Amino acid sequence: MAPRATVDVEFAIRVTEPGPAAISVAAAHADTEELRVSWHGDSRPVEFEHGTRAEVFDLPAGEHRVTYHAERVLGEAEPEPVTLADVAVFTRPSRYCPSDRVAGLVPPELVKLKNPRRQIEAIVRHVHDRLSYVVGASRPTDDAVDTLLAGEGVCRDFAHVCITLCRFLDIPARYVGVYAPGLAPMDFHAVFEAAVEGHWYVFDATRLAPRQTMLRISTGRDAADTAFLATLGGELDFLGSTVFATTDAALPVDDGTGLVVLG
């Protein structure tokens, strides 16, 4: 029997100015799922490309509790082809991945490699070895250049640096928010996908969880495109969250090499 992953999320918000808010916590291709907000108003579903979904709620003032539960059977997914539109979008600089400003920070050995897969593997090794994973080390405004200069960050920073270096080498790369069974401490997690021989494969320079059991939440150019909570006119305060992602089978061993498809 195929292993099954289970996700449970809960977070609280305080709305100070009523208005719409987009909640994007849904796992892609979930077999069963339920999203609830303590205010029982109707939502408007929004579908984006590359597996991202959101629910837009018109929230009144006050405190609200959001819960999400999902289950999905884990199986071998088919790699998604890289389109010409993907190449156009995911080789350009973006807010947190300024690939046009990173030339002086790119190791020469990455440029000398001519095989894109070998370049991606070398980028993952370089970022893993160069950066220290330090919870709370980065600011929400830090981009990949800030992270490289600081030498430390969290998962989103590792992903931004890898994406930036890939794009500098003209390799399409994109940011992915995921649930990651085995992650410690447990939270939302960020990884990246890069183009290898015309298809998207997932990589993670933090090496904090096996890629084989990750569940996609959202996909975009960088973290600016993939927030799990965003206001669309109102104002709110985020009060805290808990995230649990587990699997009913033993976690696979992932040494960081090999091509893995993210479903």
From TrEMBL:
Domain Transglutaminase-like: 147-207
InterPro entries on file: Papain-like_cys_pep_sf, Transglutaminase-like
Highest taxon in the source lineage: Bacteria
Pfam family, any one: Transglut_core
Identification of the protein by name: Transglutaminase family protein
Species this chain originates from: Amycolatopsis plumensis
